[in-house]
Write a structure and sequence with these properties.
5 helices, alpha+beta, 28% helix, 178 residues, 7 strands, Aminopeptidase
Length: 178
């Protein structure tokens, strides 16, 4: 353990970060299966190339990382929402911060980075995010950034439980003005 805290850096991941991304993502899925849409078994078998592609952002997606020195301690993604055929919705997801780094405002930094990324791309008229209905920490973060509840969807989570996915939207611009 360090005697003095380091500054936590935030940046978009790069292809060379793929091993750290894989390790942290698989750790998150294994240790907190009730929080994510995907199951550990769905991602543990992904090829190195798939992890490299995920770490490589482009104009349709970006994974951000929080770093304590060289150690990746948090991740969060933004991507073009596949459920919107117009391509005008950005989805936010895949958020995880190691427990030892929680309650330090790092989730807010991840939200700010993702929303800045979305706002820099005029094709996006809205951002969408959701959380398991019992996840109050996620609800508070989502609402703090101005997202508005839109609907709930019944969902079976990877831990086997059934609980609603609570969905939110943040309107960024009038989609008819595009």
């Amino acid at each position: 353990m360090r005697s003095e805290p380091m500054e936590i850096a935030l940046r978009a991941l790069a292809p060379e970060d793929w091993r750290a991304l894989r390790a942290l993502r698989l750790h998150a899925l294994a240790t907190e299966p009730g929080v994510f849409f995907r199951h550990y078994d769905e991602e543990v078998g992904l090829t190195d190339e798939a992890w490299i592609e995920l770490a490589t952002g482009d104009d349709t997606r970006c994974v951000f990382g929080l770093f304590d020195g060289e150690q990746l301690i948090g991740i969060s993604a933004v991507y073009t929402d596949r459920d919107d055929p117009t391509g005008a919705t950005a989805g936010l997801g895949m958020s995880y911060v190691l427990p030892a780094y929680r309650r330090r405002g790092l989730v807010s930094r991840l939200y700010e980075a993702r929303l800045d990324w979305v706002r820099a791309r005029p094709r996006f008229a809205r951002a969408a995010v959701g959380h398991r209905s019992s996840n109050d920490a996620s609800r508070r973060a989502i609402e703090r950034f101005g997202f508005v509840h839109t609907h709930d969807i019944p969902h079976r989570w990877p831990d086997g439980s059934e609980e609603d996915d609570v969905c939110y939207e943040l309107r960024l611009r009038d989609s008819s003005a595009r």
